[in-house]
Design a protein that fits this description.
Distance between the termini: 52 Å
Oligomer: single chain
Number of strands: 10
Number of domains: 2
Number of helices: 6
Length: 240
């Protein structure tokens, strides 16, 4: 299984083989995989190599270590790294996405949004995002009625990004504020659970290329099902 003469590093070959076994169901979600000693014997490699491979799988959210118990297969999570729609992200992962529109109404622009939007009316779109039959996110989007053509609930079951591009808008970037929140009864109803679950609340503004705010979004994600990776870099010339 491991070709030590290959230019591909041994730890990487091992890592890919562990992933293959997980995908094939040899080790299922929640199951403890073989110990480091067993893996070392089975693959004929050092335990240091085993640790390196497993360490990367832990960082990628594929495995989790539990002290004194072993290393277990994690439940797959939705992972967002770049600027893309939720629909596009799920499609790329090969998983099944269903969008349920809870409400779609036209409202007078709330006072707290009047400094952002100079329009009298907004569409308020409340949607659940269901991945592989589990509710992962609740999204509430506010967008000026003047920005959109004809909309209905059926259209809103697809990608909002793609829909807005069809109306002539090109989405460039977003600004988000993130907050961990406690589970309330209303969240248990939304996410169809009786348990207290970790939740991540996001408030974001999405902009076009010329800096125009296209829509606002208030979202709540199950943070045990969703990973948001943020890349931060130092701007050149800012450090003296």
């Amino acid at each position: 299984m491991i070709d030590k003469n290959s230019p591909i590093p041994v730890y990487y070959q091992l890592k890919e083989d562990v992933k293959r076994k997980i995908n094939q169901g040899v080790w299922k979600v929640g199951q403890c995989i073989d110990s480091e000693r067993e893996l070392s014997e089975n693959y004929g490699v050092s335990r240091m190599t085993i640790r390196q491979a497993l360490g990367e799988l832990v960082q990628e959210g594929i495995l989790v270590r539990e002290k004194g118990k072993g290393t277990f297969v994690c439940e797959p999570k939705v992972k967002q790294q770049d600027m893309m729609s939720f629909s596009e992200m799920i499609n790329k992962s090969g998983r099944n996405l269903v969008t349920k529109v809870l409400s779609f109404v036209k409202i007078s622009t709330p006072e707290e949004f009047q400094d952002i939007f100079r329009f009298e009316q907004l569409y308020k779109i409340d949607r659940l995002r269901i991945v592989d039959d589990e509710v992962v996110a609740n999204e509430i989007v506010y967008i000026p009625c003047d920005y959109c053509g004809y909309l209905d609930e059926e259209i809103l079951k697809g990608s909002l990004y793609k829909l807005l591009e069809e109306f002539g808008y090109k989405i460039a970037y977003s600004e988000s504020a993130l907050q961990a929140i406690l589970t309330e009864d209303k969240h248990k109803i939304l996410f169809n659970t009786q348990e207290n679950i970790p939740l991540l609340k996001s408030f974001s503004k999405t902009f076009t290329e010329n800096g125009k705010i296209l829509f606002l979004e208030e979202s709540i994600y199950r943070s045990d099902k969703f990973i948001l990776e943020v890349n931060i870099s130092m701007r050149e010339g800012k450090l003296k």
